[in-house]
Specification:
This protein is α+β, with helices and mostly antiparallel strands. The chain has 2 domains: about 25-115, no CATH class; about 150-245 and about 290-465, DD-peptidase/beta-lactamase superfamily (Beta-lactamase). It is about 35% helix and about 15% strand. The chain has 13 helices and 15 strands. A 6-stranded antiparallel beta sheet has the order 6-5-15-14-13-12, with helices on both faces. It has a 4-stranded antiparallel beta sheet with strand order 1-2-3-4. It is globular.
Length: about 475
């Protein structure tokens, strides 16, 4: 018996060693095997579920998207249950994760058992007038053929460079002038925005402020912080990514960010427990964790997940015309506002429009003008002021972030090259959605679009050159 155990131990050691070498060869660190595997299966289940049941992607497309993060996806099994609307991902029995889709709620990582989320009721969409013109309704008047050709050329160039662009839209003067889509993508296809959702979260806090349920200067935000210096953190600090919390925004297995999104069932757990590392308001540090604290705050102030669902859709998204948008929650029903938002390209353009129009769209005021002006003002940090309320600013630092675009430009950006660029001085919103494993050249592409639209960037209105217009 002892000999059998010894031989088994040797065999196990050899197999494990070979597995470690194999994992390292395909980009997975053997030092953090558990985290690698857990994040891999969690991310796989979440993206497979949303990709299938929100975007309507095939298994092959889902595998291609996941492979852009790690070639290890070839080792994972992916099971899509169209009847149960569940995705399950497993790696050799080492780790297994699943995510379930619910109508109007989207996908959430779970263990496949009955969930609190099953009891939530998705708000019923109001009737849609098909004759209404965008952004109020779905109808888009005749596009500009010259600009459509420009966007199609941009789309083709992106594909030649392996950038996998899926949707491009150019809006000026409140109307869509041109749009272009990759095969299989339509104007109504919900697409993953990743951190584009942070800017929607900012707007949700603006709506909450308009209702008188929160103030940006308010501190003492959570009971867990009541007895220490974190009680000093204000809503504005969270919005401007200057909370001072020691949250690790590193996209590697086992980091705070990946644990929050793909392992923990409650997205606010890690940031809520994060230590206080800097004085609030003094140090900028980009943190998805702080965004999920904002959606936790939204959830608490409106009275829980069901009210949060109702208000989000009935009072924010649908009045904006955003009818192809889903903001997915964690297992507690709290929106994962940092990352888990799917919306059509036209809906992402609508979000840009409401920022451009300082909180008003389709005759509905979503947030106060004062809040929206503050949202695109530099923060007060000493290290990186060119960031507003969950939006990146072109100016505010030593140099322009996008040197070929007007100084007053600002953007919502997300992983894999997602971007909604808002340019008040040109009354423009530019949208690019896709799945680029490498950097997306938004400065160059958007400058080319604008040159095609106006002939030259020198035609920018002089009264808007040094201050926001809108």
């Amino acid at each position: 018996m002892q000999g059998i155990l010894i031989r088994f131990g040797l065999l196990f050691g050899v197999v494990t060693g070979l597995a470690m070498i194999g994992l390292q060869a395909i980009g997975m660190s053997p030092v953090s095997l558990y985290a690698n595997v857990a994040v891999g299966t969690g991310m796989g289940a979440k993206l497979a579920c949303s990709g299938r049941f929100l975007s309507g992607f095939t298994v092959d497309q889902i595998r291609d998207d996941l492979a852009s993060y790690s070639p290890a996806i070839d080792w994972f099994s992916i099971d899509l249950d169209d009847r149960a609307k569940r995705a399950t991902v497993e790696l050799f029995g080492l780790s297994r994760a699943s995510a379930t889709y619910r109508d109007g709620i989207g996908c959430t990582i779970d263990d496949g058992s009955p969930s609190f989320l099953d009891g939530l009721e998705s708000p019923v969409k109001p009737p849609l007038d098909e004759t209404e013109v965008w952004p109020t309704g779905p109808r888009v008047p005749a596009l500009d053929p010259r600009l459509v050709d420009t966007l199609n050329q941009s789309l083709a160039q992106d594909h030649r460079q392996g950038l996998q662009t899926r949707a491009l839209i150019m809006v000026q003067g409140g109307r869509i002038l041109a749009e272009a889509y990759a095969p299989g993508i339509t104007p109504n296809t919900p697409l993953m925005g990743w951190s584009l959702g942070k800017s929607l979260t900012s707007l949700m806090l603006g709506w909450l402020e308009k209702q008188g349920q929160v103030s940006v200067s308010q501190s003492d935000l959570f009971p867990q912080w009541a007895e220490d210096e974190r009680a000093k953190i204000t809503v504005k600090n969270l919005l401007q990514m200057s909370s001072g919390l020691d949250f690790e925004e590193r996209y590697s297995p086992g980091s705070d960010a990946t644990r929050m999104l793909f392992i923990d069932k409650v997205a606010s757990k890690v940031p809520l427990e994060s230590a206080y590392a800097y004085a609030a308001g003094e140090h900028f540090y980009y943190s998805s964790g702080t965004t999920n604290l904002l959606t936790l705050l939204f959830n608490e102030r409106v009275g829980g997940p069901q009210n949060a669902l109702n208000y989000l859709y009935k009072d924010i998204l649908w009045p904006m015309g955003m009818r192809h948008t889903t903001l997915e929650p964690d297992a507690n029903g709290v929106f994962v506002g940092s990352s888990n938002i799917y919306a059509s390209a036209r809906d992402w353009a609508r979000l840009g429009e409401v920022f451009l129009r300082q909180g008003e769209i389709n005759g509905a005021r979503i947030a106060r003008e004062s809040y929206m002006r503050a949202a695109i003002a530099p923060n007060t940090s000493t290290n990186s002021p060119a960031y507003g309320y969950q939006v990146w600013l072109n100016r505010g630092g030593e140099n322009l972030r996008w040197p070929d675009l007007p100084a007053d430009a600002y953007a919502f950006t997300g992983n894999r090259g997602q971007v909604v660029m808002v340019i008040p001085s040109l009354d423009s919103v530019l949208v690019r959605l896709g799945w680029s494993a490498s950097y997306y050249p938004r400065n160059e592409r958007f400058a080319a679009w604008l040159q095609a639209a106006s002939g030259t960037m020198d035609q920018m209105p002089s009264e808007c050159a040094d201050s926001p217009c809108g």
